[in-house]
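Why predict the complex rather than its parts? Because the way molecules touch one another can change local conformation, and only a joint prediction can capture that. The input here totals 732 residues.
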Amino acid sequence: AFAAATALAATPLVRQTDVLTVLPGTLPEAELARRLADTDGAIIMKLGRTFPAVRSALEQAGRLDTALYVERASMPEQRWMPVADVDPSSVPYFSLVVVPGDGHGRRYDAPEPSAGAADAAQGEVVVVGLGPGPDGWLTPEASDELSRVGHVVGYAPYVARVPQRVGLVRHASGNTVEIDRATHALELARAGERVAVVSGGDAGVFGMATAVLEAQEARSDLHDVVVRVVPGVSAVQAVAARAGAPIGGDFAVMSLSDRLKPWSVVERRLRAVADADLVLAVYNPRSRSRTTQVADMRRILLEHRDPGTVVVVGRDVGRAEESLVVTTLQELDPESIDMKCLLVVGSSTTRVSPTGAVWTPRSVEP
Amino acid sequence: AFAAATALAATPLVRQTDVLTVLPGTLPEAELARRLADTDGAIIMKLGRTFPAVRSALEQAGRLDTALYVERASMPEQRWMPVADVDPSSVPYFSLVVVPGDGHGRRYDAPEPSAGAADAAQGEVVVVGLGPGPDGWLTPEASDELSRVGHVVGYAPYVARVPQRVGLVRHASGNTVEIDRATHALELARAGERVAVVSGGDAGVFGMATAVLEAQEARSDLHDVVVRVVPGVSAVQAVAARAGAPIGGDFAVMSLSDRLKPWSVVERRLRAVADADLVLAVYNPRSRSRTTQVADMRRILLEHRDPGTVVVVGRDVGRAEESLVVTTLQELDPESIDMKCLLVVGSSTTRVSPTGAVWTPRSVEP
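Output of the joint prediction:
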């Protein structure tokens, strides 16, 4: 039925390099809109009573004009027409919607002025943190900003969390091209667009805010672009909240990645933090290619801190697969740590309460 | 007219230690409800068309049953009746509502079971950060939690930020009784109530989360109470976002208060942070009684850091009177800092971009 429907569309459904997504019409409308905006071509099945929501999702995704409705493809009674012309009350279950990939780089090159950028002089980049996971941690300010931009730029899983609506163009990219991504956002803004650059957690804490300002400084032709940063809930706060109150006193936040700084700097900072008896929150403890840092960190900290120092390991906090492990520096197994973990290493006074909560007293003895 | 109306109420309007608030009926209903829930006695003036909103606010605040409507007090045509019995269409402008303070400790002692605590076994304390200022920084999760508790406990200005509704009992206190406040919340929860303890910013960052866990640990009879912490946006994130991305690399967060830790510990930590070249965010730089710490901090940091080190001073960020000053460690005037300030002292690489943004590059040279 797909092939027959596609043939009717009289245009290649997608080109070789494009993405085709087959979507059930039973998906929630917002999810459907988001996925339609994030693919080249699409087939939507399971119509009938879902049709009004499907039509609305197509409209939000800016795909209504090209979407083709196909009824009883390859059967004698087949018929087809633009989705926009369909009478919703007449749609049988055995029908499809075909959304051709336009193959003209619509989503990435020469973006058309979007709903959010009526005035070319109003282009700007707003850098937004989405919080560590659930929408319950996305601030109303961030939601509001996202509802008013014409473009959203970021690492694909974060872009995927932004609800689709009419006029929103998505620019999803990989994880390690922050500067390219930031430059692209600034260029869109210079052309008059309102652009959101999204991060997980707080965009200011190992997020995209720094990358955007770095990219802007590097290109004098982008200095006129207005950049605003919106604060958010960071992963360390989410892990701390789940554990109790481990960062209730003085604390430090470090990335263990040596991708952009030499390990000697990381080591020096670890020693200083351990020696000053600060609680330490650790981002990026490990990646696929960086596998030794957690063990090295543990060894360095043990030179200064008691083996019984409390350690919290939060993994995927805020998501369905969330886990939280409370252990000690001595017992911490570096092999148990992966990219999805954030660690909080306690100070000398951090303790586990009778109820299992990890907390750091506010009082410090001399 | 007040006195006449009060005489009609045939009960002392308020006792000597109670609070009487005179409220215009023209206030927004939510604001009216909040203030009615937060005072002992009240007089509401300017009725007429505002009456339905006033009545609704009284109901939300749990004060409708005792509120007395007084029409044309001290005039020949005067009449009075319970507010609940008044025909809204008949209310002239020259009428009043009198809300007697009950003087029986209703709000503080032996609280009645509230709407949020139908099942006595379901009592719990949820510790909630309200964000640094505007409601745009209050997460949906925090809003949701606040909408489901029967009691809200905290420092008065934070309690004041929680919307009033039927069944919500307020327990506002001063700024320096965190442990008493936390214990009171836990006792309410043990009695089956659902209680929110509120902080500004993130409750886990120099907020009430630690105080609640400290109070719980100290009293074995409170160990059974369920305590949950909800993460929020902290002041350091708000200041950082306004400035650009100063905490985009490794950073430390410290309180400069020596109320609970000796200054020698603060000094040792400042030296370690400065020596390790971490960005430093400073909470509680100064209070009315602590006036020397900022100068001391500046002197210590200057022993390790360049005089040109960038310093951001955020004051009242997120509020109407917000200000942000970018200066250097050399130029920082300790006398310009007050209780409402949060400081971010840059690392050796923190800089001001051509657009005026303060940011810390992710890359660190060896």
